[in-house]
Amino acid sequence: MTRRQQGVAILTALILVAIAAIVATAILWQSTLAWRRGTAVYTVAESLALAQLAEAGGAQLLRANRNKNPQFVTPNQDWAKPYGPFEIDGGPAKAVLELAIEDQAGKFNLNSVVMSVTPQTPAAPQALTVTPSLPGAIGGPLIENAIAVEQFKALLAELNIDTSYAERLVDWIDTDDQPSYPGGAEDSYYLAQQPPHRVPNMPLTSISELLAMGMDRASYEKLAPLVTALPPNTRLNICTAPGEVLDAISGERNFSLDPKGFIEQRQQFNCYPDRNGYLASVASNWKSYVPSHIDTRSSWFRLRTWITIGTTRFTLYSLINQDQSGQIRPILRTFGTE
After folding, report:
1. Structural domain for 197, as ranges
2. How far does CA 15 lie from the centroid of its chain?
């Protein structure tokens, strides 16, 4: 065999070895990806199953509390305690479960800035009367609730946030296309933003929609712990509401002036403030409105579940409704974001 032929043979062998190495690497890489995908799918499925377990546990706590305390939902009851971490074995990796429940009815309801109206009689279609709607239901066109708007403005002002977001919130939800004066915004405003978008003209399902209205992150972070997005007719639970929210609803600054003393009072009494004491603090021009918009009970809760499987951590937020009969069902679930 000539030296030329020997060189070709060696080169051919090297090429074959290189091709074999590439094929082996590709097979190993695809196998690794398949294993990772399988592990990820299993981990997500396991975390969802554990989250449903947490929902069942949270429902049991709320049901027991309703049976024990039918007239009050307060922050010193068993449902309000954090639970866990619980270690759960049985899978390829050890799982750890933690959960905590928040009363959503103790926060300012952003959807309360509108109210539902329906025609008074078929013969007079222009005559409108305000009618209460069932939880989660909309009875008719949505119009501004002027008192709730003023209450929201009071809350924004107390947090040093631009009060024009109250008008923007109304326009985001109400069913007309006329901007509220002076700070409102309808489609014409949002279509000029980046990215362009429209108003939904329906109640919020998440407080994060405030960011789509243009609220800056710093203001949102201050406001987020105090607000929620529930059916417009949901009553405020004064037993769990923060001092800032109580003051915004009453129209007078009382409960947010001394945060430490406020916490001490809540630890001492079953429900602080009690209904009569709170109504005595309400501004005179709102005394006919507030009594029908407050309660000492709750039907809306948020369950926050933390699930750790190996080195992977999941967070599930579940909005839970407890009806008058005590039955509990999850209304909305979100992974990772509130």
Report:
1. 108-292
2. 60
Q: What is the pLDDT of residues 114-147, one digit of tens each?
A: 998 765 544 443 433 333 333 344 557 899 999 9
Number of domains making up the chain: 2
Q: Do 101 and 121 lie in a common domain?
A: no
Pair 259, 199 in one domain: yes
| Section 194-203 average pLDDT | 92
End-to-end CA, the chain: 76
| Mean pLDDT within 202-219 | 94
* CATH number of the domain encompassing residue 62: 3.30.1300.30
CA distance 103 to 185: 31
**Which residue, among 61, 81, 80, has the nearest Cα to 237 in the 3D structure?**
80
Which distant-in-sequence residues (6+ apart) come within 8 Å of 41 by Cβ? Answer: none
Q: Peptide bond before 200: cis, by omega within 30 degrees of 0?
A: no
